[in-house]
Specification:
Layout lengths: L8 H14 L4 E6 L7 E6 L5 E6 L3 H6 L4 H7 L14 E7 L13 E6 L2 E6 L12 H32 L3
Parallel strand pairs: 3-4, 4-5
Antiparallel strand pairs: 1-2, 2-3, 5-6
């Protein structure tokens, strides 16, 4: 019997982004770096303007290697409460294919999302990170500009593909 195919990081990101939007978040963006924070695989803005981060892991070794990001996890754990960065997410999740990681392996400050063929299941709810602050208008503007740049870059790619198809079509 054939082993099931492991989904790609982009497939997981898309599933999580859709799920976060369906849950009523204001907006969701993938591969985004909020001002004053690290790059996020999936970043959502809640109705009350807090950030929610999902760190996508497609392999067990990738999950285990994430522990090397000591400073980020020190902040997320709440041990570094004087942290001045303004984009600490309100909740932090690991998002993995179902069964790749157990709840017991996830740090106390993090939640766990299982991504399945049909969607996302919260295996462990992420606790509130107390040092998180609401996103400012300036931070929200940066997010809107990131959406706009990605949208127009996508339109450029579509236009290029259409041009190539038209150049190679037989009349």
């Amino acid at each position: 019997m054939k082993k099931p195919r492991t989904p790609s990081a982009r497939e997981l990101e898309a599933a999580i982004a859709r799920w976060l939007l369906w849950r009523g978040n204001k907006s969701v963006i993938t591969r985004f770096c909020p001002q004053g924070w690290w790059e996020c695989d999936v970043y959502a803005v809640t109705k009350s303007n807090y950030g929610v981060e999902a760190e996508v892991k497609v392999s067990r070794s990738d999950f285990l290697a994430d522990k090397k990001k000591r400073f980020k996890h020190w902040i997320l754990s709440g041990e570094y409460l004087t942290h001045e960065k303004k984009s600490v997410p309100r909740r932090f999740y690991y998002a993995v294919p179902e069964g790749m990681v157990t709840i017991e392996e996830v740090p106390d400050y993090a939640g766990l999302m299982y991504v399945r063929d049909w969607g996302v299941e919260i295996a462990k709810e992420a606790p509130v990170i107390k040092c998180a602050k609401k996103l400012s208008e300036k931070q929200l503007d940066v997010l809107i500009r990131a959406y706009a740049f990605r949208y127009y870059a996508l339109l450029d790619k579509i236009a290029t593909l259409e041009r190539r198809v038209n150049e190679n079509s037989c009349d």
